[in-house]
Amino acid sequence: MNIIIVGAGKVGLTLTRQLIAEHRITLIDRNAQLIDNIVNIYDVLAVCGNGASYEIQTEAEAAKADLLIATTTSDEINILACLVAKKLGVPHTIARIRNPEYEKQLRFMRGELGLSMAINPEKVAAREIARILRFPAAMKIESFSKGRLELVEYRLPENSALDGISLLELYRNTRIRVLVCAVARKDRTIIPSGDFVLRAGDKIYLTSAPDQLAKFFQHLGVFRKKASSVMIVGASKMCYYLAEELLRMGMSVKIIDQSEARCVQISERLPKALVIVGDGTDHELLREEGLLETDAFVAITGVDEANILMSMSAARQSRGACKIIAKINRRSLVELVSEEHNIDSIVSAQSVTAELIVQYIRAMEGASGMTIKTLHHLVEGAVEAVEFSIPAGAPLVGVPLKDLKMKGGILLAGIVRANGQIIIPSGGDMIQPGDDVIAVTSGLRLQEIQDLLK
Amino acid sequence: MNYRMIACVTSRILLTEAALMSLSLLTALAYGESVWPFAATMLLLTLAGLPLGLRAPKDTALYARDGFAVVASAWVLLSAFGALPFVFSGEIPAFIDAFFETVSGFTTTGATILTEVEPLRRGVLFWRSFTHWVGGMGVLVFVMAILPMSDGHGMHLMRAEVPGPSVGKLVSRMSESAKILYGIYTALTVLEIVILRLGGMPFFDSCVHAFGSAGTGGFSNRNLSVGAYDNPFFDVVIGTFMLLFSINFNLYYYLLMRRFAEVWKSETLWTFLGIVSLSVFAIAGNVASMYGSFLTALRYSYFQVASIISTSGFSTADFNLWPAFSRAVLTVLMFIGACAGSTGGGIKVDRLIILVKASVRDMKKMLHPNAVASVRFEGKPLPERNIQGVHTFIAVYLIIFVASYLLLSLEGFDLISTFTALSACINNIGPGLEMVGPMGNFAAFSPASKLLLSFDMLVGRLEIFPMLLLFAPSMWRRRRLIRRNPF
Known about the structure:
Oligomer: heterodimer
Distance between the termini of chain B: 32 Å
Number of domains of chain A: 4
Radius of gyration of chain A: 23 Å
């Protein structure tokens, strides 16, 4: 496919990195220096100029493009770029729109401007943080089929009860219906079979219904209750979305930021939150505001380094009693920090945005249209979990799973029946029309449900 | 530096050379000549290329330094292996001579050390001209067209090999761009072969001259070059094709895409054609008395101007005998060279335009110190960095030229021969004046000078910097290995 990306910032770069292997990409950015650096590394065509201008888009051959993604820092330019592209005949357009003021009128704009999709990375990331806070035992949590099935990431600690236990033993002993669908061990990623033996330090990915997962973690003795008080440092846009969601869930929220103006702004919008002007790196302040009593500490200022340092120091003070979440956008830093184990969860707005867009593109390419419902990247993109909705007449329907000839490296992680029943698949189960099927793969790119079969 | 990846790419290039050489082997077979010089070279190339070329290493990242290193080492190795058929066949027994001839072929120079070309075997002659065709568009571009490098980073390679101050891609994928360029190149070459053949030139000769003009090289299979046929039709066809091949290939792509406005507005194209027509008429007027009629003079002058400005180096007349003014014009054209993005050499018309415009701008700034003025090129303001790049290029070019000139003068030949021999090599033209004129050759130079000239040809073809960086110590400095004390 021909894809035009307007804006070569962090999101634009992440997208380029993920899409370059399969698509022809044209980048548009105003900054010539940025363009130069990217062209040196990635095999893309680059055009220097304002992506919202008709002339520049013509130069980038927008008329031949299948998709335009506008990810500049300015919402207005993104909207205009999509409008121009639509006029030039680009069938699909995606815009990044972050301003909470526009957020409200998004549905209206989508229809009027012909946007195929509007993405608000801050909001998506905030949702992800909220999900983690609802289930703090996990490092990361993704939901499928409207939350009926969840996929959680969990690192086995040094003296874990699961160390040295095979998956079959695990399933037999706990009698809880969970499935380990992927394991990341050092640099390797494994789609495990029943005789796979877990080791301390592994990162495992579990799927099941939310209540089963809670039971499982209770069984392990590492269950943590839903956070009830949360401390957020950085009164950014993401903070607004996060606090809004947390308050709706009935948690108590404390927001700390250095800038008084930002604090006033956010407290006007969120009267229920406690907003404090102060330095989030200041130990005394954190202690005074009750770091030791909060359930979770979330560092989401605009500076990655500050977030890392704050989270590390908060982790040390609370000695593991508090769930630590940090927003880190730069990939190199994420890799560095995830090797240390004192930050519980890392969230990046870029990668969730890129995930959503890749999901959209994959669905766009699938021959039968929107068969992909959800796509999540696990283990830094090495594993994909894809949710398909099964139309009537799909080739796998009504065949016991053990008789299906599936490609290697694929695991069916869950089936959600139309009535909401959740099945952790075994050989005798069958897929029925109307089901949602979640498949986990490494190294394959699934577009349609047929891609599962040989 | 990523030595493993450099070795891998270089090995693949050697394997590609082995594949390309099979055409020469087939030619030798078709004319009933011994095939073993080619077979043996291909075997050696395969042996050299297979161990490292088959599997790409895990880390395929190539940065600017690696790109330059790949290009420089690949071209030197290509020429070294490409020289072997000449040696094995005994046509050019001395390796240094064969190396000079091959470098001259790959860099599309066309300078020869052979006095007599006609008695050479067909297979060897074919290889000699085919190197022009391969070298014209670039070997790495070819390798990229057929074996795309997995995760990008190839732009550094392309930049190091494609002539001109800036590299523009035609389409998003580099391998597709390379395929388009090679497609246009092949189509034009085939067209020329067909036209020459229809005009009555033997098929083998048509191929040789088409390769020579496509790569803007200039090797002929006749002692008198194109002049041997004394046929106005061939002169016009070959002359025109040499000009066609010295125009930026992107313009052909725009023509194919029906983007005529971009071709029509091309500043470089019109400047190039202006320089060509001005020179043609100036020389024709100057030599009209020699040939009796202005029309005949025009025929010879058109061919010679096309041949020199495209940096091919074919000849239909012994321009050594032309008056001083005509020879001076030709010498100037040697330095101007073709357009960027073509197969021609020289300083390039694009750089001259930028240079002149930047100088005018700077002079304006002297008069109005606070004036804000940007240099516009091809309808767009040119970034200051590019202007600086052109200045640096010219400066380094001059330094290398002067240094080589001093070294070459140790041979003790007359100044004109020395000067034009050097400029013919560094600008990838081929023949110069006096001793190295169209009827002369480079045989008289000592082996050391031949090596120096080979270096200069590579410098000219690869636009200086890859070759120069081969000598930069930081290029090869490894991280020091920490030795553990065994005790």
